[in-house]
Amino acid sequence: MDPDVVLAIMNIVLAGMFGAVIGSFTNVCIYRIPEHRTVVKGHSMCMTCGHELGALDLVPIFSWLFLGGKCRYCKTPISSRYIKIESLTALMYMVMAATHLSMFLDPMDVDPMKNIFPFIELCALFIMINIVIVEMMIQHDTGSSMYRLSLALGIDFAVQVISRILGVATDESVSGELCEKLASWGVEILVGAVIAFAAVVLAVLLANRPKELSKYFHDSKYRAVRTSDVFAIVLGACIGIIPAAVAATVYLIGRIMIGNKKSVKYLGIVLASGAAVGYFAYCAFQVI
Ligand SMILES: [Zn+2]
């Protein structure tokens, strides 16, 4: 087999294992953050019998499978959410690693600078995935509004902006094309935001009767909807034209179906999935 293929598979598998471990930590965050407990200290224990869990009980994905989804000590069934989140994180990390393969395949010693910015971007995406999952599940459990998610996306956006600007600024070969590059990148963000904004305006017009439209902007009843809409626009701006179009379409359909109901908080999950599909489709499109 081609050594590059072996190396690629190895990196994707390693990313999956890393993702499963981070997914396990994600579960800890989901349960402890709403209770204002620390996520860095303390042993995990069974929620029913309180038995402290050993190393064998804490292997991501596999412990749940080998124990048949039951506590080793009291045999109480354990929520399948643990394995679902660990598997989801592992899968997302594998896909992310697959879309950044050139970073792993190019030898670092030839041009270390070349790999630093894709690496920062990959880390930002890893962090973003976990923040989105943690926030989504906490929102799901508590039914609170989505402002923290928008904040998280804002932070990710800032990281990506900084990494891209540094990438452009330190690449000698493009110093002449610097303005051109920044301009085309700015256009991409602008168009992504415009697409998302258009979808949101359309959804607002269709979901609210024109008479009620002014209430949409100041009535606290619409707070969750508004936060969700802002989130859609921010995400649209973050991910580029093609993924933004996919995410905006998904958001538009979901938003019209849900209207202004409380369940609009679930729309974030739909939007995040749509954005992920769009992002991967975009990467696949670029590879072809
Ligand atoms: Zn137990």
Order of helices and strands: HHHHHHHHHHH
Rounded to an integer in angstroms, the radius of gyration calculated over CA atoms is: 21 Å
Low-confidence stretches: none
How many domains make up the coordinates? 2
Count of separate DSSP helical elements = 11
Largest sheet composition: none
> What percent of residues are in strands?
under 5%
Apparent shape: flat
Structural class: mainly alpha
Q: Could you tell me the number of beta strands?
A: 0
Provide the helix percentage. over 70%
Report the span from N to C terminus: 22 Å
Tell me, rounded to a whole number, the average pLDDT.
78
Distinct small-molecule ligands in the complex? zinc ion
Can you give a write-up of this model?
- The chain is an all-alpha fold and 288 residues long.
- The chain has helices spanning 3-32, 62-66, 81-99, 101-105, 112-142, 147-170, 178-207, 213-218, 223-239, 241-258, 267-287.
- Helix 1 (3-32) packs antiparallel against helix 3 and helix 7 runs parallel beside helix 10 (241-258).
- Residues 46, 48-49, 51, 71, 73-74, 76 line the site of zinc ion (ZN).
